[in-house]
């Protein structure tokens, strides 16, 4: 599993309705993309949930490197780069995955390539990143992060991943309804979820 995110920070007076329309018009295009576990179309709006910026920041969990490559070298990312400038793409190696009860409800809907029923679809997300200091065993840090993944009814999916170039540990969680106040990290709204191969990503530790 590979985790990936790019962040497009927009002007303070930017009309975020433009991003919402873009997602509404184009979000379905990855609903059946080969090799994609999920893409969460994330946004932050200045002044909402403490965000200091307007930002479009989609997050991906890739089941295969081939799927990730086909997106990055394909027309979708090319079009985004033409509209907003080519963003820096952050990449982490997947270390573990947890499915919540909301995701299980979505899978029983039987609709391929969608988030399932409206009741189960994630509407918010949290993303927490921490640097692993020298002397901290990365494997132990990952084990702790996996053990601390929140097992709550509102959880849809949570992933733990590591960027070994910076020894950065990431935890991303998708929630149905408001994200719990005690969960750390930046807050996002989820405008759409593409999940063509989420059920093919194994739960638990990924090594």
Commentary on this structure:
By secondary structure, the protein is an alpha+beta fold. It contains five helices and eleven strands, in the order ββαβββααβαβαββββ. It has helices spanning 17-26, 65-72, 75-84, 101-107, 138-147; strands at 2-6, 8-10, 36-44, 54-56, 59-62, 89-99, 124-131, 155-163, 168-175, 186-194, 204-205. An eight-stranded antiparallel beta barrel has the order 1-5-3-10-7-9-8-6, surrounded by four helices. The longest helix has 10 residues, at 17-26. The model is unreliable at 108-119 (pLDDT under 50).
Report, as a whole number of angstroms, the end-to-end distance. Answer: 10 Å
- The helix/strand class is alpha+beta
User: How are the strands ordered across the major sheet?
Assistant: 1-5-3-10-7-9-8-6
* Residues in β-strands, percent: 25-35%
Report Rg: 16 Å
What's the total number of strands? 11
Mean pLDDT: 90
How many H/I helical runs?
Answer: 5
Query: What is the helix fraction of residues, given as a range?
Result: 10-25%
Are there runs of 5+ residues with pLDDT below 50, and where?
A: 108-119
What's the helix-strand series? EEHEEEHHEHEHEEEE
Q: State the major sheet.
A: 8 strands, antiparallel, barrel
What overall form do the CA principal axes indicate?
A: globular
């Amino acid at each position: 599993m590979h985790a990936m995110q790019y962040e497009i920070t927009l002007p303070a007076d930017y009309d975020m309705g433009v991003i919402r329309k873009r997602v509404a018009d184009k979000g379905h295009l990855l609903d059946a993309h080969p090799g994609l576990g999920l893409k969460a179309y994330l946004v932050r709006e200045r002044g909402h949930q403490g965000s200091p910026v307007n930002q479009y920041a989609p997050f991906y969990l890739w089941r295969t490197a081939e799927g990730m490559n086909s997106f990055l070298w394909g027309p979708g990312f090319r079009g985004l780069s033409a509209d907003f400038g080519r963003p820096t793409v952050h990449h982490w190696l997947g270390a573990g995955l947890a499915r919540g009860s909301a995701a299980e409800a979505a899978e029983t809907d039987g609709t391929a390539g969608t988030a399932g029923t409206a009741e189960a679809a994630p509407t918010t997300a949290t993303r927490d990143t921490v640097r692993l200091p020298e002397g901290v065993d990365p494997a132990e840090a990952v084990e702790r992060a996996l053990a601390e993944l929140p097992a709550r009814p509102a959880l849809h999916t949570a992933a733990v991943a590591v960027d070994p170039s910076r020894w950065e540990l990431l935890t991303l969680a998708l929630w149905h309804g408001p994200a719990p106040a005690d969960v750390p990290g930046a807050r996002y709204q989820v405008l759409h979820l593409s999940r063509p191969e989420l059920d093919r990503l194994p739960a638990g530790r990924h090594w």
